Amino acid sequence: MKQRFFMYLFIFTLLLVIFQFVNSKNIIEDYNQKLTNYMEANTKLKDSIIVMEDNVVSDLYTFKFDTNEDAMVYWEDQGFRISEFVPFIKDELMNLNIYDTEDHPLVPYASMTGQKMLIDQIRMLNHKWIITSFTDGKYWGEMLLSYEIENIEGEKQLKFKIIESSLYSPR
Hints:
Layout: H1 2-61, H2 69-77, H3 82-95, E1 118-124, E2 129-135, E3 140-152, E4 155-168
Antiparallel strand pairs: 1-2, 2-3, 3-4
């Protein structure tokens, strides 16, 4: 009787160990499959991010004076050094923010808050156009400007002309 009891106990234990082994094997295979799926999805997402970053970087360089070889050559042929030219143009536009009159000399909209309209961002697009944003603290807008440097009586003068402008309403 004792022998049978130990034999049944041994068989029961053997069956229990086999069950645990098979169950653990299935759980580990399931985890491995999930891990593989996550790793594949992660790789795809990383590839997508790289493609998107490349697109963003190329978009940042589109319509930018600093990356437009033809625009830079145009002004270099006129005798300007690009390293000094871009800051000169931006400084001239920012200097227009210093004015004593009621209206900004370039911004076509009057301030509606009592504050001065000021140009706050400038992006040179190419050798002829600039896009700027302006604000009075509450209202803001954008302008597309053309610019040129004229020789007037032997002196070079910078001229801006508004091509188009837009004023946004406050939110």
